[in-house]
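Instructor's aside before we start: the two examples that follow are unrelated to each other. I chose them only because their records fit on one page, so don't look for a connection. First example below.
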Amino acid sequence: MMRAVATLRWPLSLRPLRNHLEPYFELTKPRVVSLIAFTAVVGMFLATSGFVPVNILVLATLGISLAAGSAAAFNHILELRVDASMARTRARPLPAGKLTPRRAIIFASILALLAVTILVFGVNTLTAALTFLSLIGYSVIYTLFLKPATPQNIVIGGAAGAAPPVLGWTAVTGNVDSDALLLFLIVFVWTPPHFWSLALYREKEYAKVGIPMLPVTHGSEFTRLWILLYTILLAAITLLPFATRMSGLLYLIGALALNAGFIAYALKLYRHYSDALARKTFGYSIRYLAALFSLLLVDHYRNGVTAAVQSVFY
């Protein structure tokens, strides 16, 4: 009985530590980082016909994730004033007073240093350099210069967010191939309709803090039109892996279905706007990218899996 009580009380003793660490964890935008890490891992597996070496898989995923977390933390620091004024972000660790900017800067810097060190010594220099450039591209160039200056901020700044599949690819191969650039292009074109869907139902908040997001500068209807146009362009680009024989029929069928869903959301959003529909479109865009990259991965290994199954049963 005493042992059982001790077992029940043990998690309670960890609560102060959890409460101390949780703001740091939140600073890294873990949901965003998980999607970044996933696309990077898919890039690693697509770069080889076999299995990714375990050391590369672990170290590259860790290094890229730490760099993404560092970029997110620097983004929190640089946008503290803006975050404090927006309902969506005022509960974040810095505006809520859970962390001081000084501690956040130290934390973000340590993550960046760890990321580059792991990638340089555990993976390769090219991956480390490209990862560092992506970190600077998002946390500094996008946040400080592009976001407050132009409604095309997310289009131009999307290059940093589209880098993870390339980083995964270079971690395995040590170079950038055309297939890696195709993965980059998919995420690059996906980013504007994804983010503009969010910007639509947060338009008043962006206007309040003076950030020239597309719905603020050009209006809702114009933005919805461009979301639709980008989803159509995205649908065409996502067929390229099949056209270039990077992927096969399984991927093609899945991509067609996913694109039909995205275009349907974009078309409905254009014709009959509501904040609720914009939220649903934003949510679908996240599931879309995760599912698309899952299809790329499954299709890539379908022949090997089929051969393995046949060898067992025949």
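Example two begins here.
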Amino acid sequence: MTGEFKLRHLLGIEGMSESQILHILDTARSFREVIMRPIRIVPALRGYSVANIFYEPSTRTRVSFELAEKRLSCESINFAASGSSVSKGETLLDTVKNILSMQVDAVVIRHSAQGAPQFLAERIDASIINAGDGSHEHPTQALLDMFSLREKFGSFKGLKVAIIGDIAHSRVAMSDILALNALGAETMLCAPTSLLPYGIETFGVKITHDLMEALDFCDVAYLLRIQLERKAGDCFPSLREYQMRYQVNLERLKKFDKEITLMHPGPVNRGVEISADAADSKSSLILDQVTNGVAVRMAVLYLVAGGNRES
């Protein structure tokens, strides 16, 4: 590793170069080896403290960060907005400042408001890691997706990825598009018009409304769930119709004389965007993504903490 890469915050994939992304993935590969060992804990960040502040529900991301912190010997503080002083009217900034007064070095933040991590980064001294801000970005998810793809395919050059589903409400889609563009892959988006964000074509992606065209194009089909909590269900007649037009299942996959790798950020709505048999097939990387998420978040924490010296 070089000592030149400085990662004060991780606010998003936007603005990151290919070399910066690959540096994080290289670091994550070392930590992937660590978490596969019988003894999975290293003292790399002993004495470093992290506050996990989640204003939205989360399972995979929150648990993944908590486990990554434990694997690095960090001290963790876990905060959920429900049942906290937030319900009494305390602002985001006051909440974070109160937690930082307990001598916290970094904050992992998930918030429904786009730009909340940037807002904090401009106002407090601790490092900020974006664990998802509204429909904007989810950078560590994109990094673990890129890690999973790199482990399987070796290179991104010429790799074709179709992102299928509720793209309009997905922070994962935006971060993945930015990362795939930076790494040299080709990306196609597939969704009803109502589930595509306005102006998304300016990001250099191909667009189709035909699932079979997307599957014919791609090496990797990245499925996204319908985000009903963000009113995405109002964008098409019914889940049944969506399932009929856009569900990826083995029957459809068998029409192509190639293996199509399947990915999903979770949670998976089996029987809607993907069938159970496809989700559990040998072509699926869904569980690998979860495993790789711990290694990638270990790498991000390590780099943010200054662990980027020659080793």
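The mean pLDDT is 92.
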